[in-house]
Amino acid sequence: MCRVEPDALRSYLLKNRTAFLCFSNRELAFPSVAFLKVEEIVIKRDKFSFVLVVLQILGAFFLVGCNDRIDKTPDGKTILAFWHSYNDEEEVVLREIISEWEKKNQGFTVSAIRIPFSGHESKIRTALTVERGPDMARVDWAFVCELARKHALVDLGTLGFDSIKDQYLKAPLGTTFIDGKYWGIPDQTTGLGLFYNKKLFRDAGLDPERTPKTWDEFVEFAKKLTNSEKGTFGFAMENTLWWTLPFFNTFGAKVISEDGKSCSLNSPEAIKAMEFKAGLFKAHKVEAGAWRAGSVNPETGFLNGRYAMILMGPWNLAKYASSPIEFGVGLIPEGPSGTSTNVGGTDVVIFNSSKYPKESYNFLTFFTSPESQAKWCKKLNQIPVNLKTYDLVSFENKHLLVFMEQMKHALPNPIVTKSNILEKIVNPEMEAVLTGQKSAEDAFRLAARKVEETILKSKP
Question: If you write DSSP's letter for every residue of 96-147 in order, what string do you get?
Answer without folding.
Answer: HHHHHHHHH-TTEEEEEEE--STTHHHHHHHHHHTT---SEEEEEGGGHHHH
